[in-house]
Every structure is written in C-alpha cells, then in structure tokens.
Amino acid sequence: MTIQYNKYSLTLEAIDTIVLPPYKGSAIRGGFGNAIRKIVCTLKHQQCKGCMLKTSCVYAYIFETSPKSRTAILNMGKYEQVPHPFIIEPPDDIGRVFNPSEKICFNLILVGKAINYLPYFILAFIELGTIGLGSGRGKYRLISVKDGDKTVYDIDDRQINPGLPKELIISEAFNFENVSEEDVKLRFITHARILDNRDFVVKLDFHILVKALMRRLHMLYYFHCNEKESLWKHNEIIDKAKEVKIAENTSKWHDWERYSSRQGIRMKMGGLKGTITYRGNIEPFLSIISVGEVLHIGKGTSFGLGKYVMIK
Predict the structure, then answer these.
(1) What are phi and psi of 182, to 5 degrees?
(2) What pLDDT band is residue 72 in, cutting at 50, 70 and 90?
(3) pLDDT tens across 94-116, in order?
(4) How far apart are CA 258 and CA 24, in angstroms?
(5) What's the CA angle centered on 207, arms 202 and 212, to 5 degrees?
(6) How far apart are the first and last CA of the chain?
(7) Which of 119, 164, 180, 311 is positioned for an S-S bond with 185, CB 3.0–4.6 A?
(8) CA dihedral 257, 303, 104, 16 (to 10 degrees)
(9) What is the CATH number of the domain that holds 244?
(10) For 114-219, where are the E strands, in sequence order?
(11) How far is Cα 36 from Cα 273, in angstroms, rounded to an integer?
C-alpha cells in the first residue's frame, strides 16, 4: 500500500497583534475552513450535503468528503464522513500572543488527491490573513510555503512551485513467524482521541492502537489515493496485536474545548497525552506505526490532534 503525501511549512508574519487559544490548531484550522469556503463556495448559504455542485467542489472534497452509496469498505454505511485529506500541525511553542512583525510557523500535510489542491490551500491562508486570525481577528501576511529546503511559494513572486509527492510505503503482509520480544515507546504530543466500540479510549492497549491505525490508513488510502482495499487480514493482525502488552504507561486524559463557528457550539476535544511503552513482538507492526507518526491517529487530525513520535 502506498500513500502519497507532502508536508509543507508555512510562515506567517503578524500585521496586527494576534492572540491564539492555548491549542493553536483549533484557531488555524477553523480560520482556514472559513477562508476556503469563502473563496471557492458558489452557493454561499447552502449546506454541502444537499448541494448539486458537491461532487466537483474543492471545499466539499476537503471538508465534507462522504462515502459513495455503493461503498462497503470497513462498514462505511455506518459513517457519514471519511478522514480529511489534510493535517494542520500547529506551532509547538507555548506563547499565545504574536505582536506585529513576529512570525507564526506551522506545518500542513496533504494526502493523496489533496496535493493537487495545494494552490487552494495557499490562497485560503492568504485570504485568512485579510480576514484575521484568533480572538481579535489579527491580520497577517503569508510570507512563504516550503517543502523542506525548497520554496513552494514566496510573497515576493507569488508563484506556486509544488514539488513531487513523497510516498509512504505500508506493508500489507504481516510476518508473525519470527517472534522476538522488544519494547517500543510512543509519546503522544497532541491529544489522541481514539474511539473503540464508539467510546473514547482512556487506556490505549496495543491492539486498539493497531486497529485505529489500520482503519485510518486504510480509509485514507481508499478514499484519497487509489480506491482499492488493502490486503490486510484484519482479524489475524488484531489477534496478534493483543499479545503485545503495556509495560509502562504515563499517558493521561486531558480535556479542552473549542468553539465551532460553523456549528455554533462549544465542542469537547479531550484526548490522551503522555507516553506508553509496549512490550512484545513489535517488529511486524512497525510499518504502520511509523506511518502513523506522519499521518497521526484518531479523531481531530485536521487540527493536528493524534500526533505522536516513536522511541524505539
């Protein structure tokens, strides 16, 4: 299984004082959603669900991707939406106030077909700078967008030069014949909101981690890359994952809220943060765990939630 992606770093320069919430990803993601809808939506006051232009609309694809009526992948009949094809990784610094001329840097990860829509993402962040960001609607300039060392967009020439997509190779064959016991430590940097049997998980057993990763990667691959199902033997893989145990767990549930202007409500967005060490036959699962480091895990990934690093 191959998932194409690109990770871009965006640099904003504050024109006004910008005040962001403690978790900056909520403000950046919320502002981006409003801005891109403003620039691409033809029928401004209509919901995507009933819009006749939905199948060809950039906003609908990015934010309201829905399974086709014939889709049976992973019991998709039970779900209204599929994972967003983008991830916003907010700044790591704890500062919330950015004065004029100060820089705000964050990452944008695009997956599969969404890479083709990079110009729309850049235009939306330029537009958001004129609308304003944060509680006081502080304005900013989008200075640059980079892909590693390569400049994709610069405020001076305003040309977009996208690079070639990168590839995440995920093994579809799990070899459980060679058994060796080892440890792997995962550090959850942003809140991990992982559902199991429709309840949020407060103790992340290894098989629940594996199941959540497989589901997310499978759906990203199917809906945003290739419309092919993986060859994973899900039940066998999850059964083997149950043999891996938690050796040490310092993760805890942390609550926080965000306000959704689109829905007009405050939403609880709590999740797990901290470290978990797993012990057992880890090697067969390293392929999906390492890809999860790039593509995150659980709900709210478009805000940057579910980010973790593997310490092996």
Answers:
(1) -150, 170
(2) low
(3) 889 999 999 999 999 999 999 99
(4) 10
(5) 70
(6) 24
(7) 311
(8) -50
(9) 3.30.70.1900
(10) 140-147, 150-154, 166-169, 182-192, 195-196, 199-200
(11) 31
